[in-house]
Amino acid sequence: MTFDLSADLEERHRQHRYRQPQIMEGPCGRHAVVNGQRYLNFCSNDYLGLANDADVIRAFQQAANDWGVGSGASHLVCGHQRPHQDLEEALAAHTGRERALLFSTGYMANLGVMSALLGKGDGVFEDRLNHASLLDGGLLSGARFRRFAHNDAEALASQLQRSEARRKLVVADGVFSMDGDEAPLADYAQACEQHDAWLMVDDAHGIGVLDAKGRGSLFAQGVNERTQILMGTLGKGLGTGGAFVAGSQQLIETLIQFARTFIYTTAMPAAVAAATRVSLEKAQQENWRREKLAVLIARFRQGVRQLGYALMPSQTPIQPILIGSDADAMVLSNALRESGFLITAIRPPTVPEGQARLRVTLSAAHETEDVDALLVALEANAGTQHASR
Ligand SMILES: *Cc1c(COP(=O)(O)O)cnc(C)c1O
To answer: I want to staple 153 with a disulfide (CB 3.0 to 4.6 A). Which of 187, 194, 248, 335 is the partner?
Structure first.
């Protein structure tokens, strides 16, 4: 039989890696309801608590009244409506760049940029822990694909030095989605300048969250002028959905002409763009969201460390607890679930073998008492799996 799907599915089951979505019975926020049970939600990427914000909802509703639901076409046909244009201009201003371009998802933005800029004879250099969409984008582009050790600027520099590629593009997550740590962007910028390469940063987890004004990793690390391509997503810190690329006028014009995932797809609903403009304003102005997050992060890290669990070197709202074996991670995740906490166990192939972890994410939607309750539950379960100390 050519398509023997059952063998692959059974293999997944045997590896304990079979995945299934759970049905969420309410909006994303402090709590989650699953199967009629209410949990404290520590697994969303809604870091600023904007996904279910009343002002953002109102903007969405108003724009749906004014613009309908569907955009009706791709941007280059007749789908590019005024709210899309307004959001692009607001994102360009927010990120200190000449222009920004909307994409329907971050995954598509990454594939589109890399395929538009690179081809045979070019080289792409990626951190080995980069997001799947960056790895796929690099492979799809047809450029020579090289990976360097995680956050290792020296390894990158020596790869760049040896490369004879026509164009060289260095690509990294600003904040690593499963680790929460940050790329050494100033070192990368220097290596790129020395070896005539461009730097592209995927700041899906930094936009809205890092820097005093929420401008993300490039401002937090002072490398905005030295980074040619910024990709950001709207579905995490900004709480809506979609993505953008920001850079020079020339870069954006090039993407409009050559990025196939921009050209050949329907524009996101205008109401999503209008809602995002309000969530972006709130992210810029409501510093209390970032300040509250910082308090929650510090409290969580101090508490977890005292319990003897292994934290990762992260100052962001992504605070994984490193466990090790897949089975141990599942045991702890399930035990916490029974105590009323929704926290995903992240296992290979999403993370390297032997590095299964609980990916705890904090949000401005949480209260300090939520973090304290989680610490109590972690203490009660410290003995359920041996690799936790
Ligand atoms: C989530 C994520 C993406 C994909 O963005 P979507 O808009 O969800 O498709 C890309 N890169 C990173 C680092 C991400 O975390």
So the answer is: 187
DSSP 245: E
* Mutation pick for ligand 1 pocket among 28, 47, 107 (CB with most ligand atoms within 8 Å): 107
Cis bond upstream, residue 27 (ω within 30): no
Is position 84 annotated as part of the catalytic site?
Answer: no
pLDDT tens by residue, 333-378 = 999 999 999 999 999 888 989 999 999 999 999 999 999 999 999 9
How many Cα atoms occupy the beta-carbon half-sphere of 284 within 13 Å?
11
Q: Which of 108, 177, 233, 359 to mutate to test the pocket of ligand 1 (most atoms within 8 A of CB)?
A: 233
Q: What pTM was computed for the model?
A: 0.96
Please enumerate in sequence order all residues whose Cβ is within 8 A of that of 132, keeping only pairs 6 or more positions apart, or say none: none
Q: Which residues line ligand 1 (CB under 6 A)?
A: 105-107, 131, 133, 173, 177, 202, 204-205, 233, 235, 243
Active site residue 94: no
Cβ burial of 313 (10 Å; 0-12, 13-18, 19+) is exposed
Is the Cβ–Cβ distance between 133 and 111 less than 8 Å?
Answer: yes
Indicate which atom in ligand 1 lies nearest the CA of residue 110: 10
Domains in the chain, please, with CATH? Answer: 13-48+287-384 (3.90.1150.10), 54-285 (3.40.640.10)
Q: How many CB atoms lie within 10 A of CB 350?
A: 16
Which pair of tokens denotes residue 281?
């304003």
